[in-house]
Amino acid sequence: MNRLLRLLIVCIALPVHAANVTLTQGTVVGSVIDNVHHFRGIPYAKPPVADLRWQPPLPVAPSKALHFADTFAPACLQNPVYLKGAPTSEDCLNLNVWSPDLDPESQLPVMVWIHGGGFRVGSNIINGEVFAELGVVMVSINYRLGSLGFFAHEALAQPVANFGLLDMELALAWVQENIGQFGGDRNRVTIFGVSAGGQAVNLLMSSPNARDMFHGAIAQSGYSTWALPRTSNAPVPAPLNMNRESAASAEQMAVDLVDRITETPQSAHMMRSLDGMSLVNAVVGFQLPIVDGTSLPEEPGLLFLRGEQNPVPYISGGNSFEGSVQRASGISDDEYRKMIGDHLGSARTLYSDDPDDIWLTRMFGDNRYLLSARLLTGAMAKVSSPSWRYYHDFLSSDQAGQPGTNHGFDARYLFGGHLHKDPATRVLAMSWRRYWVSFAQTGNPNDPSSADWQAVDTMSDNWLLINNEGFESTERVIGTKLDLIEKVYRQRVSPALSN
């Protein structure tokens, strides 16, 4: 077929409002909607299936064929009920890009969204255009979930256990290589996410492999002070588990998980032949990342306290009723009481404003998420990088009467709050976006139109308080409560922290 005829066929095939970008892997064709270029479902790695299950991801092979990136690709394998029936697949390593300007000379800031969902569920399907409309190139990624993404089994003879984390790193490498073709500046990349996405940000902050792949980080409701399982390759001495007992063995957890699926003798070949859905459904509660000494050298909280995190501007915070997620975590009230241990009486006194059916749940959320925000932002001084922290206590009109802002609601406000029927929620959403975009642009969340957000001062325990009155810098948000929770945390990690 001659060149002219081939070009004519391509032109006929393209949508009326199409946008072409030529990448190292080939040409991708997206669409233009309201002056924003949308590219959905771009593969960034080979399908991690068959022999590539539980292997580090491999870059996608170059192709001369056009890739039409006009629809979202499948999410990673999970129970589809969480995605309201949207397709899922083990072949899921794809990403989406939204850009206001494809000119490589534009050099726009880049924001990379990492979805939450307990490392078990979720997808990269978001309203990315709401950030592109504010002048950034927006990227959202998929990564392997559940036991397909985080798994350590002796039969695999594999030194790494966090395949989902390696997926994120490869996606960031893809951004470094290709984002200029979408008008983005590879030297101004900000990663951000909520819940497991916030924890993913902290994992990347802790990863030597991710150094120089991003230049700012926002961890919303991360939980880097929570105990993680460990492999036999993890460093010693190890921190204790949440009950201040020996840390959980990731290898034994893998054996127990496979035992829930089959009684067949466990081997690498057998496990790679197992149905993927049975593997992800066998996880109880949230999936946890694994300290393997390689892809994750240690619990992120410890690495931050030692000053071993990536030295970039950093934001972290959480919501006033993070404990709303406790049931989904798989941790019961009795199990959490055991974690508090001898401090239970002191804790009840500190949470005396809450009734008996609420206080423990609220403390669970403060422990899992807000302690991480306070500790990690404070530790950024060790690497001479600025940090900011926030406490989110806003209730929209349809949440009035709730004990506080539920876990994950900040993501709803960020991407969809502008459509809310409540005017105050719409104002909150736009204000919050301006902070995030300013941070992506300059490394500082403040701009002339926003309330002054003071950087973390380790001498004053200062926060940005976000509530129905607006945005206000204040000090010692739930400070006494976090003091007790931090005391318990430091007891847990003391064997490793003194090393």
Average pLDDT: 94
* Main pleated sheet: 13 strands, mixed
CATH architecture verdict? 3-Layer(aba) Sandwich
Counting structural domains, the number is: 1
Which topology does CATH recognise? Rossmann fold
Distance between the termini: 68 Å
What is the overall shape? globular
Helicity level, as a percent range? Answer: 25-40%
Low-confidence stretches: 1-16
Detailed description of the structure:
With 499 residues, the chain is of the alpha/beta class. It has a single domain, classed as Alpha/Beta hydrolase fold, catalytic domain (Rossmann fold, 3-Layer(aba) Sandwich), CATH 3.40.50. The chain is 32% helix and 17% strand. Strands 1, 2, 3, 4, 7, 8, 9, 10, 11, 12, 13, 14 and 15 form a 13-stranded mixed beta sheet that branches. Helix 2 links the parallel strand 8 and strand 9. Helix 13 crosses helix 16 and helix 14 crosses helix 15. The longest helix is centred in the last third of the chain and has 21 residues. The N terminus is likely disordered.
Short précis:
The chain has 499 residues and is an alpha/beta fold.
Features:
disordered N terminus; Rossmann fold; two-stranded parallel sheet; alpha/beta; 499 residues
How would you summarize the topology of this molecule?
Blueprint: H1 3-13, E1 18-23, E2 26-33, E3 36-43, E4 67-68, E5 75-76, E6 88-89, E7 94-99, E8 108-114, H2 129-132, E9 137-141, H3 146-149, H4 163-178, E10 184-194, H5 196-205, E11 216-220, H6 250-259, H7 268-273, H8 276-281, H9 300-306, E12 314-319, H10 326-329, H11 333-340, H12 344-350, H13 359-379, E13 387-392, H14 409-416, H15 423-442, E14 462-467, E15 470-475, H16 479-497
